Amino acid sequence: MPRLNLTFCYQVIGVFALAAAVLVPCRSAEAAAADQQVKSGQLIANAIRNGRLVQAESMLAIRKARLTDPSDPEQEILLAELALAKRQDSLAFNNFQKHANNSEFACRAKEGMGVVLVRRGEFKPAARLLGQVTSDCTGRGNAWHHLGIALSVLKKWEGARYAFNRALAESHQDRGAILNNIGQLHMDQGNVEKALKFFKAARNTEPENNRFQNNVDIAGATIGVRPQRLSRDSASRWAERLNNSATAAIDAGFDALGKQLLAELLVEAPQTPRQALAKLDPDQALPAQK
Q1: I need a labelling partner for 110 at 20 to 30 A (CA). Which of 4, 16, 183, 220 fits?
Q2: H helix intervals, the chain
Q3: 70-173: what fold?
Q4: Where in the sequence of the chain do the CATH 1.25.40.10 domains occur?
């Protein structure tokens, strides 16, 4: 008879006060180590997604020391994802590209490459690559988000809206950024009231995010809504918001509101740039300082 290559271990099973020792097959040390590497990879990927980059870097170093294969592809993918999170885009792109045809890691690799292309402003190739990822791979909320950004810039409005909606459905991360980008999509189409709705939703997910609040102020002033000072606004922050809103109001034809906001700005920030103050009376621009 052929011999089975099994190792047996004692396993103690307790039933009330009784215990029985039984023999069960042991998993090989190699299999256990492989499982540990998979689990560590998942923990590292989760740390990167949640912005714990110092922790992820330390964990990657420990994982590398335990590798039996120094060219382990998942280690390289994790290093690329860490580089992407640190905005080391060239390094990330090159490492992702090595594994774009590896069936096990192609989804992660191509998504990462697509994100870099969006950041570089290469929107057409980004849309092609991310379109492939969203077609071939499941659960890629970040790919849908960046596909939406690329399609927005390319003025593919319906495709962009669909991509952003899929990103919201599939991703629990970056929700504020996705909502903000949907707002920008409507803003670019001239749908200011719809844009304002999404900007407010984005702001509500991250109340401390100044960029989201700025977009709320600008969209609101564009339809004649004055900003409301927040209790946490410092004098300089409130001056910044007043300037944003005043400029948007005047550009949209709400001159009275814009000039009122600029007058308030002058009180809050006496060092307001002269170009902004000139809008208080466009017919009498202030002379240049010598």
Answers
A1: 183
A2: 29-49, 53-66, 73-85, 89-97, 106-120, 123-136, 141-153, 157-170, 175-188, 192-205, 210-222, 235-251, 255-268, 274-277
A3: 1.25.40
A4: 70-173
